[in-house]
Amino acid sequence: MTGLLHLDSAADRSGGSVSRRLTALFARTWRSVHGASGYRYRDLVADPVPPLDSGYCALGRRLERRGLVPPSAVADAAVGPDEAAQWAATLPLIEELLAADTVLIGAPMYNFSVPAALKAWIDRVGFPGAFVDPDTGRSLLRATRLVVVATRGGAYGPGTPREAWDFQIPWLRAFFGDRGVTAEHMHFVTAEMTMAELVPHLERFRPLAEDSLEAARAAVVALASARAEDEPGVRVDAPGR
After folding, report:
1. What is the dihedral of CA 11, 49, 36, 184, to 10 degrees?
2. What does the DSSP 8-state code read for residue 225?
3. What are the C-alpha distances in Å from 135 to residues 7, 68, 69, 143, 174?
4. Is residue 8 packed enough to be buried (19+ CB in 10 Å), middle (13-18) or exposed (0-12)?
5. pLDDT at residue 99 in the model
6. CB 227: neighbour CB atoms within 10 A?
7. How does pLDDT run along the chain (241 residues), one tens digit per residue?
8. CA 224 → CA 43, 104, 170, 185, 234, distances in Å?
9. Which phi and psi (to 5°) does residue 113 adopt?
10. Which of 43, 115, 187, 218 could in theory staple to 9 by disulfide, Cβ–Cβ 3.0 to 4.6 A?
11. Residue 176 lies in a domain
12. CB 115 within 8 A of CB 153
């Protein structure tokens, strides 16, 4: 069964979030093509992932010293109620990620990086060895398709003055690449200048913001409409101007 894991992390849940509107468009399109049975949604703001504590760290370090084990065997290595509770909060998130063929992440830029809600999820699913096949040593995410909807209030694309200030897309690319998601399966859709309609001194950039948003809409529809067999021919990075 084709599965989609849809994650939103924008703090604004009132309807004003551009990233939430774009991921919702992707999800609607995806369900119209693939059906709703494989769809899983997690709102990382409404249902926040707890930050790591010492029990998580102690369990992870112990397993790294012993040699990494699959998630199914981690519970047996937990010592005491704190470690057991930390693993109980972690395993369902890892299982959701492993079960998905496509992972859709709404990732607005906050202070040049990602929201704390998304960072907490990434820290927790990044448990040592969670995505390594113990028999082959290969990544269990090598066939996973990643779609990140990255929105930014300003302009951070190639050639812009703030290009080097983007710690959002490069960081997400590095994290998922390190976990084994291949470059051809990573897609980053950007909508830039999203604050232009709100901030008076950015008013002159509104046409650029509208163009960037329209390109992002087209990109998410194209990516959501593509079937697995079409993946090699679908490589849409909507540039935010």
Report:
1. 90
2. H
3. 30, 11, 10, 17, 25
4. buried
5. 95
6. 10
7. 579 999 999 999 999 999 999 999 999 999 999 999 999 999 999 999 999 999 999 999 999 988 878 898 899 999 999 999 999 999 999 999 999 999 999 999 999 999 999 999 999 999 999 999 988 889 999 999 999 999 999 999 888 999 999 999 999 999 999 999 999 999 999 999 999 888 888 889 899 989 999 999 999 999 999 865 555 434 444 433 2
8. 19, 10, 23, 13, 10
9. -135, -150
10. 115
11. yes
12. no
User: Which residues have C-beta within 8 Å of that of residue 202, sequence separation ≥ 6?
Assistant: 154, 193, 195, 196
231 token code pair: 């993946």
- 147: helix, coil or strand? strand
Count of the separate structural domains present in the chain: 1
CA 211, CA 78: separation in Å to the nearest integer?
51
Query: Does a structural domain hold residue 201?
Result: yes
Structure tokens belonging to residue 27: 């999800």
Check which CATH number belongs to the domain holding 173 and give it. 3.40.50.360
CA–CA dist 10, 75 (Å, integer): 32
Q: How far is CA 53 from CA 50, 71, 83, 95, 176, in A?
A: 9, 19, 9, 21, 23
Q: Is residue 240 part of a domain?
A: no
232, β-bridge pairs: none
How many angstroms separate the CA atoms of 131 and 8, rounded?
A: 22
Q: Which residues pair with 139 in a beta bridge?
A: 132
126 closest CA partner among 66, 174, 75? 174
Separation of alpha carbons 68 and 168, rounded Å: 29
Is 238 a member of any domain?
Answer: no
Furthest CA-CA distance within the chain: 60
